[in-house]
Amino acid sequence: MTGGAGQGGGPEEARGGQAGPPRSVPVTVELLLASPRSRYVGRPADGAEPALGPETPSSVEVRAGLGIVGDRYFGRAAHRGAQVTVFAAESLETVARLLGVDGPLDAAATRRNVVLRGLDVDALRGTTFSVDSGEGPVLLRATRAANPCAWMDHELAPGAFRAMRGRGGVRCEPLSDGVLRLGPAVVQLGLADDTGR
User: Quick check: 182 and 29 in contact, CB under 8 A?
Assistant: First the structure.
């Protein structure tokens, strides 16, 4: 298991659900991040670039094939198929435990767009799923792992880069338009990808 103890929706549920009917998993959207620019540039020792304004809104607008409106990856050709990053809150707690860190680590420092609690997000790679936080489902295809970078040692805690390997979340292609909000939500697992790809 890549996340922490008590994490719901394990690999069997995420991957195995594709063969059977869709399955609903209750989750909580704990953090949303939309940053208009990449703040981790240059050398980590030099520190992150300053934020240009608020980056953790209570809701975000997702556009199919483009990403999150206002985010640095929105509509970028270099990030096609991987515009939205999804991460498990439990994974960050596991990292803190592995490193012996007292207190919580800052989820926003991971620079992941959507942080969910209650689902083994890393097991979603290669699947199509949806997240519905009350505004209708947002369909996502998890195309690949969201691997951590060396900045994690500087921005989270020493050793975080290595500790996040295998638990850094997934990069997703948005397949539908919609809105995601903080708070209770439902993830639908085992959805067929009807985009013809």
Answer: yes
Question: β-strand 59-63 against 178-181: which pairing, if any?
Answer: antiparallel
Using an 8 Å Cβ cutoff, are 91 and 167 in contact? yes
Give the pLDDT confidence of 91-104 residue by residue, as tens digits.
Answer: 999 999 999 998 88
Helix, strand counts (H, E) of the chain: 4, 10
For CA atoms 166, 93, 84, 150, give the dihedral sign.
negative
Q: Determine contact, residues 186/27, Cβ cutoff 8 Å.
A: yes
| Residue 74 tokens, joined | 């929105």
**Span 26-38, pLDDT tens digits:** 999 999 999 887 6
Structure token digits, residue 18:
């594709």
- Please state whether the predicted TM-score (pTM) of the whole model is above 0.85: no
